[in-house]
Design goal:
There is one protein chain. By secondary structure, the protein is mainly alpha-helical. The chain is 75% helix and 1% strand. It contains 18 helices and two strands. The protein has a two-stranded parallel ribbon with strand order 1-2. The model is unreliable at 1-15, 194-212 and 498-505 (pLDDT under 50).
């Protein structure tokens, strides 16, 4: 009875220990925003930049996009391996990685948007810096994502931190697209196209008198892209400073001092055999590929297939404003109705995207942009909200191992990047095959049809397939609560075991 009375007042103190302040959640969320700012700019504008500004062929552009994504994907398990081997420092185990890679990320990002003065080696130039950028962002993203598990052991607190993070990341995506779109919009306004809309499809930039060559490093088009890169580089530095000053990383609260880190290869094998993780990853790699295809081809579609070249930057902003505003809605929705039920919102974009492809209309385009933002917000929030549940489930089944968090997060990012790289490579190769030509006013009917398929049919099929796989995801709201209680009991037993060991040592002395 005395022991029970003694334990009673300690419970609120334990809960308070793992409760996150609003300031801490905001600082954590801001830390991940720069990656989304840069990623959004690249997702919406890198393909059209390579094609229409750098004058790289669609085939070479597909190589740059695919190999760059693959390099980032390959870096994920490598980063997970080295991070899992890292020792605890005064600022944590994950924070040093994020601080060290940020300056190099800024440099590689800037040169990714620079038009070199030579022509023959441009493909190698963009391939090198895009691969560097993807690898370095991975070295930031893997520890940053895994940091969720070291902020608190409370599932609600982690879900709340994830919601803050997703809101800020969507805002970062909005800021990236808006900054890039507004700064570089003048680079894609072809005045000669609006005056002479019936120009032959064989025309090019060089066939239009008085229009400067955008592949000239000193041209207006090249300069505005460099200005945008410099601004976004500054956002990177600001974000990591706020993250460092405002977030305190906690060590694994469940692990005993005697627990050993799971070897990376063994941990990776256990991860690939963990049913909930396999189903979650398979589902969202298809969904993320669909979203990536929408992002990378949307500007091209508006410019060449829907005659909305003067509105694309506002449509992009509409998508992202809708996504940013709807993240709190989805957070409340998944808390009330469950995470699997909230996944149905991802499919909302399908019918409207198909309508835009078949009926390209300005008013409809803005409506499609709004509903697509709702779906994109759900697709961004859900996997990062569900992955901690998978890690907790794995922890319950493997209670005497530690260091597996980075394995889960790095392998998940690996698969999503790899699938996105394959999708981008196939889409760019499809444009090459159908005869896309940089800088001309009107593309061929085959190119327009390809863009419509990449915006409408392909994402719809991928999203539906991903949602079908998600039906078999086994973690429910009831099992989450059971896991939480079991882990709390595990943590208390670990503390009791450590206290008993300390008592035995003092007694023997």
């Amino acid at each position: 009875m005395a022991g029970a009375a003694k334990d009673t007042p300690e419970r609120p103190a334990e809960e308070e220990e793992y409760r996150l302040s609003i300031c801490g959640k905001i600082c954590y969320a801001i830390g991940g925003a720069p990656n989304q700012v840069a990623g959004s700019a690249a997702a919406f504008f890198l393909q059209i930049y390579l094609l229409d500004i750098a004058h790289i062929t669609p085939f070479h552009a597909s190589l740059v996009l695919f190999i760059g994504k693959v390099s980032g994907a390959v870096t994920d398990p490598v980063a997970g391996f080295f991070i899992s081997k890292s020792r605890w420092t005064k600022i944590g185990r994950l924070m040093p990685w994020m601080l060290a890679c940020t300056p190099f990320t800024v440099v590689s990002y800037f040169f990714m948007w620079y038009v070199p003065p030579f022509v023959s080696g441009r493909v190698a130039w963009y391939l090198t810096f895009y691969c560097l950028f993807q690898a370095l962002t991975t070295l930031f993203q893997v520890p940053y994502s895994a940091l969720t598990m070291f902020l608190s052991t409370d599932q609600k607190e982690r879900d709340s931190a994830t919601a803050y993070r997703m809101t800020m990341e969507v805002l970062g995506t909005l800021i990236g697209a808006a900054l890039q779109g507004q700064i570089v919009a003048s680079a894609h306004v072809s005045h000669h196209c609006t005056v002479n809309s019936s120009v032959n499809t064989n025309d090019s930039w060089h066939d239009t008198h008085g229009f400067p060559d955008p592949s000239d490093p000193l041209s207006h088009q090249a300069k505005v892209y460099m200005i945008a890169a410099g601004v976004i580089g500054g956002v990177y530095l600001l974000g990591v400073v706020i993250l460092f000053l405002g977030v305190k990383e906690k060590d694994d609260p469940y692990a005993l001092n005697s627990d050993r880190a799971i070897p990376f290869c063994k941990g990776l094998g256990l991860t690939m055999k963990h049913g909930p993780y396999v189903k979650l990853t398979a589902s969202f790699l298809l969904i993320s590929t669909a979203v990536q295809l929408e992002q990378s081809n949307f500007v091209l579609f508006c410019t060449h297939a829907a005659d909305l070249r003067n509105h694309f930057q506002y449509l992009v902003v509409t998508i992202l404003v809708s996504a940013a505003v709807s993240v709190p809605f989805w957070q409340k929705f998944l808390q009330r109705f469950g995470k699997k039920c909230a996944a149905c919102g991802i499919s909302w974009m399908i019918p409207f995207a198909v309508m835009l492809v078949t009926i390209p209309n300005l008013i409809l385009a803005y409506f499609v942009a709004f509903t697509s933002g709702l779906s994109i917000a759900a697709s961004l929030l859900l996997p990062w909200s569900m992955l901690p549940d998978v890690v907790d489930n794995f922890r319950l089944q493997n209670p005497h191992g530690k260091g597996h968090e980075t394995i889960f997060y790095s392998s998940y990012v690996f698969f999503t990047k790899m699938s996105a790289g394959i999708g981008l490579g196939i889409s760019a190769a499809g444009l090459e095959f159908t005869g896309y030509k940089a800088g001309i006013c009107r593309q061929s009917s085959d190119v327009i049809l390809t863009l419509k398929i990449l915006i409408g049919a392909v994402p719809a099929i991928l999203i539906l397939a991903g949602l079908f796989i998600l039906l078999f995801y086994p973690i429910t709201e009831e099992s989450r609560k059971e896991t939480k209680l079991a882990l709390e009991e595990l943590r208390r037993s670990h503390h009791s075991t450590e206290n008993l060991d300390d008592h035995k040592e003092r007694t023997s002395v």
